[in-house]
């Protein structure tokens, strides 16, 4: 049975793929978009656009009217800035959205979170039973932990049928932020390996996330309401393989393989550079941050066994095919372009 769905964050990279998947299968999709947002692609899909923001409680109530499913994909992302700026969108914006659903016959509320909520350390098959730390190394992940706890609180106390998905590093076509940024760093020859690039990257093809959202909507409430699911491609991809695949696909030199930087040295560098930038009140992050160190320096292997079992999630696209699609899109039309992919235009952070 088709649903009427409010999808936030649909003008972004991940949200646009979710919108496309929902429309393709026959759901009626509505999105909340700021006045400055480019909604031409969404309108071409037949998505109804309601102008407004997550901070506009009245606008949210109008947007959710008549919807039986809400998918929250909107977020402020980045690796720099005060935590309060992230909380304003990722926590308080979510609170407004949850409040707008109260008293309505809601089938499902899917909240797209991040594998970044786990501790900044090596992970080897970490699953959803892992307790989340109260304090994080950056404002984005701190706010994402708080937003998850808020959503689950609404499930327990207000009976909102919340399901949380935690994707990892997202890649694929229409990525106008992370891949162009990496291409620039490769051209500058400033990409270096930490621990020889041998550790796992939690790759998640954007189409696989869209599949997971559809499964979370369709699964029985007793299986998924109040539950959290890790979402990745379920495949080991090393940092070295990732960087070299991008370099080879764009005809660029591979990152220098020697000398590799140990994790402990990179941590000292990140702490020092962050301290300097904070003292200068710099609006931009340094070349290396604690958030980037987590991405580049730790083994990021997370179990998706729960998603396979309870959601019947099977990654449809694996790394080689997914990166082929991403690079073809970038070479064909994405190179050098930018687009709204965050809630406020901050520099992107891989999930």
Could you tell me the strand content as a percent range?
15-25%
Nearest-integer average pLDDT = 86
CATH architecture of the domain at 4-170 and 203-232 and 302-315: 3-Layer(aba) Sandwich
Overall morphology: globular
If strands are numbered along the chain, what order do they take across the biggest sheet? 3-2-1-4-5-7-11
Which class best fits the helix and strand makeup? alpha/beta
Number of strands: 13
Radius of gyration: 19 Å
Describe the main β-sheet briefly: 7 strands, parallel
Order of helices and strands: EHEHEHEHHEEHEEHEEHHEHEHHEHH
Number of helices: 14
Q: Span between N and C termini?
A: 32 Å
The third-level CATH topology of the domain at 4-170 and 203-232 and 302-315 is Rossmann fold
Share of helix among residues? 40-55%
Could you name the CATH class of the domain at 4-170 and 203-232 and 302-315? Alpha Beta
């Amino acid at each position: 049975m088709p649903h009427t769905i409010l999808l936030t964050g649909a003008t972004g990279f991940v949200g646009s793929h979710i919108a496309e998947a929902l429309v393709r299968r026959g759901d009626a999709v509505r999105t909340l978009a700021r006045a400055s947002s480019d909604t031409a692609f969404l309108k071409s899909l037949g998505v109804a656009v309601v102008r407004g923001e997550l901070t506009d409680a009245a606008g949210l109530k109008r947007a959710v009217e008549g919807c039986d499913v809400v998918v929250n994909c909107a977020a402020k992302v980045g690796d720099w800035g005060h935590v309060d700026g992230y909380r304003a969108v990722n926590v308080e914006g979510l609170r407004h959205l949850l409040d707008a659903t109260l008293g309505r016959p809601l089938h499902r509320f899917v909240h797209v979170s991040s594998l970044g909520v786990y501790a900044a350390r090596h992970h080897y098959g970490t699953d959803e039973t892992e307790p989340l730390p109260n304090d994080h190394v950056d404002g984005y992940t701190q706010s994402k932990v708080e937003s998850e706890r808020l959503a689950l609180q609404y499930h327990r106390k207000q009976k909102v049928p919340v399901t949380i998905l935690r994707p990892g590093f997202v890649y694929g076509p229409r990525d106008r932020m992370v891949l162009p940024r990496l291409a620039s760093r490769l051209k500058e020859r400033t990409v270096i390996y930490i621990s020889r690039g041998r550790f796992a990257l939690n790759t998640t093809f954007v189409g696989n996330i869209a599949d997971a959202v559809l499964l979370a909507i369709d699964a029985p409430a007793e299986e998924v309401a109040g539950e959290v699911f890790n979402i990745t491609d379920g495949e080991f991809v090393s940092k070295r393989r990732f960087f070299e695949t991008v370099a080879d696909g764009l005809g660029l030199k591979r990152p220098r393989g020697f000398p590799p930087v140990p994790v402990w040295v990179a941590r000292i560098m990140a702490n020092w550079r962050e301290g300097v930038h904070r003292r200068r009140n710099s609006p931009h992050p340094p070349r290396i941050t604690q958030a980037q160190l987590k991405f580049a320096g730790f083994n990021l292997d997370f179990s998706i066994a729960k998603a396979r079992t309870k959601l019947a999630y099977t990654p449809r696209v694996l790394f080689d095919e997914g990166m082929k699609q991403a690079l073809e899109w970038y070479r064909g039309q994405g190179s050098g372009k930018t687009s709204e992919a965050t809630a406020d235009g901050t520099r992107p952070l891989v999930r």
